[in-house]
Design a protein that fits this description.
The complex is a heterodimer of chains A (245) and B (114).
Chain A (H helix, E strand, L loop, with lengths): L2 H24 L10 H14 L4 H9 L1 H23 L15 H23 L8 H18 L2 H7 L2 H24 L22 H28 L9
Chain B lengths: L3 H19 L3 H23 L21 H32 L4 H4 L5
The chains are: A mainly alpha (245), B mainly alpha (114).
Chain lengths: 245, 114
């Protein structure tokens, strides 16, 4: 299809779609006039029932824990696909790599790698209490490791970001979620039932087995993101000084 | 003003679709897809907003305080993280296409076989 034909087809289709979208949006309750009872109910019962003061995490890992399991496997499958695609193209020999150095970037990485890592771990640890959780914290932890790469160079990054270690961590994180769910099933309770009880509100153990789900998701998300960065660097680092591709 | 957040969500969605349809570069196309997807975040958070409501976190806040809907927030946060990995997959496919066909222009890729 030529560009001209495509534009001719696109224009009326897009006009029709916009009309439909805005017609649909116009039928929504006014902004700020939230009516759905579900959110209000969760806000009211999450803390007394599950001892989690963060209602968002309560939804993610408890009330809708089964959906999150599915979400987590979408992430897992996407990362496995990416890694397979990139690894299939093989690695370049060490000699052909080129290092891009910058004192500013190095200083930034050095300054922020530690704090980013700590913030990430804090986000995960207190995910059931204050804003945060396995998904957000996992990304921050991966970011901390990427900053280590920025501060040092690729070689030192590889020591902590070894593919085998990351593959293992990613699988353990994804599998851990299922194992926690199955543990409940084995003991005679429904899948993903909170076996350890709700714990004490406002503390690190304020959620029973949700804390473990939280950590396993954090492990998977952190490993998955780090693996993505690593694989892209491994196969597509751009040589700057001569050499060509 | 009460319609503005919805209007923004609709606009981001349509702009993203337009970008995908007219893209001349797979990487640009992947980013347009992210833009389209982001419209759902704006829409979800706008729907869940309660006038005068705080964050749905009740640490140090009296239970029963008006707070926004936590469900749309949990949908949004998991999707933001998952979408990053999906984009990585699309970009890996784009790199693959570039290595095989020597181009990332979808129009030229249409004629490429193999």
């Amino acid at each position: 299809m030529s560009r001209r034909v495509r534009t001719v087809v696109l224009a009326p289709a897009l006009a029709g779609l916009s009309a439909l979208v805005y017609w649909g949006l116009a039928g929504l309750p006014r902004f700020g006039d939230y009516r759905g009872p579900y959110g209000f109910i969760i806000n009211r019962v999450a803390t007394p029932e599950r001892h989690m003061t963060n209602a968002v995490t309560a939804v993610v890992f408890d009330y809708r824990g089964f959906d999150t399991l599915g979400e987590e496997f979408i992430l897992f499958a996407a990362v496995v696909g990416t890694v397979l695609l990139l690894r299939a193209r093989g690695t370049k020999p060490e000699g052909e790599r080129d290092w891009i150095g910058s004192d500013g970037v190095r200083a930034f990485g050095l300054l922020f790698a530690g704090p980013t890592l700590v913030v990430g771990l804090w986000l995960v640890a207190f995910g059931t209490v204050t804003p945060g959780g396995g998904f957000q914290g996992g990304v921050a932890v991966a970011g901390g490791f990427v900053l280590v790469y920025a501060a040092a160079d690729y070689r030192s990054f590889r020591k902590i970001g070894n593919e085998h270690v990351l593959d293992f961590a990613k699988g353990t994180g994804a599998g851990g979620y299922v194992v926690i769910g199955l543990a409940a099933l084995v003991s005679g309770a429904p899948f993903l039932h909170n076996l350890l009880g709700p714990g004490q509100s406002g503390t690190l153990v304020s959620s029973g087995s949700v804390a473990f789900i939280n950590w396993s998701v954090a492990l998977e998300v952190a490993a998955a993101n780090l693996l993505l960065v690593l694989e892209f660097l491994e196969h597509y680092d751009v040589p700057l000084r001569g050499g060509g591709k | 003003m009460s319609f503005l957040p919805y209007a923004v969500a609709g606009w981001i969605f349509l702009v993203g679709i337009y970008g995908v349809a007219t893209s001349r570069n797979l990487i640009h196309l992947a980013l347009c897809l992210t833009v389209t997807q982001s419209s759902t975040y704006v829409l979800l958070l706008a729907i869940g907003y309660v006038k005068g409501g705080g964050a749905p976190i009740f640490k140090g806040v009296k239970l029963g305080t008006t707070a926004v809907d936590p469900i749309v927030q949990s949908l949004t946060l998991t999707d933001i993280v998952v979408s990053v990995t999906i984009i990585a997959l699309i970009l890996a496919l784009a790199l693959d296409a570039h290595d095989d066909a020597g181009t990332v222009n979808p129009d030229e890729l249409a004629d490429f076989e193999g």
